[in-house]
Amino acid sequence: MAEEQIDILNSDGTPAGYSCGRTEVHAKGLWHRTVHIWAFDSKGRILFQLRSHLKENNPNLLDTSCAGHIGAGDNSRNAAIRELREEMGVTKHPEDLEYLFEAIHENVLNNGTYYDNEYYDTYKINLTDEEANHLVPQPGEVDDFVWMTCEEFLTMHASSPEKFVDHPKDYGWIQSIQITQK
C-alpha cells in the first residue's frame, strides 16, 4: 500500500506547493495540517480515546476523541469525517461538524527522531445515544474510549497530566466550557 501523501506548509501556515509521504514529513519536521474532533454525548460528556499501545507516539495516553492527518488535496472537514468513520465507526456529514478554532503544535518525540509540526483545525461533534453506545475503536489506533464530564477531565488532567497527550489550546477550550456550564 502506498504511503499517505500530505500537503506541506510553510512555517506561517501557507501552502508550500508540494506533498510528501508521512514518514518524510515527520523525519524532517515539515509543517502540515491535521484535524482534531471532540465528540460529545447527549449528557454533555466528552469522549477521549485511549491511544493504542501499538502507536509509535504517545501510546496508552488519553487523547482527543479522534484526530488525523489531512491527506494531499483534501480539506479538514472531509478528513474529520473520514477519521470519525475510521477511528470510531461513526458516520457523519461535513455539516454536522462545528468548527471551533485552528491551533499550532510543535513537538519532538521519540528521542528526537520524530518531529510533529502541524496546524490543526478543531471541531466539535454531537453523537446520538445510538452512536455513543456503539463506538468501534480502530485496531492499532485506539484501544478504548473514555467518557468524562468537563469537571472530571479538568480534575484528572490537573492531578495526572502525564496520562494525556498535551493539547493546551484544546484543553483551554474545555476549561472554558466548564466555566460557562457553572
Task: Please write out the topology.
Blueprint lengths: L4 E5 L5 E7 H7 L2 E10 L5 E6 L10 E2 L2 E4 L6 H13 L9 E12 L4 E13 L2 H5 L8 E7 L1 H10 L8 H14 L1
Parallel strand pairs: 3-8
Antiparallel strand pairs: 1-2, 3-6, 4-5, 4-9, 7-8
Structural summary, described in words:
The protein has helices spanning 22-28, 76-88, 129-133, 150-159, 168-181; strands at residues 5-9, 15-21, 31-40, 46-51, 62-63, 66-69, 98-109, 114-126, 142-148. The chain is an alpha+beta fold and 182 residues long. The protein has a single domain (5-181), classed as Nucleoside Triphosphate Pyrophosphohydrolase (Alpha-Beta Complex). The strands form three sheets. It has a four-stranded mixed β-sheet. A three-stranded antiparallel β-sheet has the order 5-4-9. A two-stranded antiparallel ribbon has the order 1-2. The mean pLDDT is 95.
Helix/strand-derived class?
alpha+beta
The first-level CATH class is given as Alpha Beta
pLDDT < 50 runs, ≥5 residues: none
Summed up, the domain count is 1
CATH topology, by name, is Nucleoside Triphosphate Pyrophosphohydrolase
Count of helical stretches: 5
Beta-strand content estimate: 35-45%
Helix coverage percent: 25-40%
Overall form: globular
How do the strands line up in the largest sheet?
6-3-8-7
Q: What is the strand tally? A: 9
Give the ordered list of helices and strands: EEHEEEEHEEHEHH
Computed CA radius of gyration, to the nearest angstrom: 16 Å
Distance between the termini: 50 Å
For the residues shown, what is the average pLDDT? 95
CATH architecture: Alpha-Beta Complex
Can you identify the CATH superfamily?
Answer: Nucleoside Triphosphate Pyrophosphohydrolase
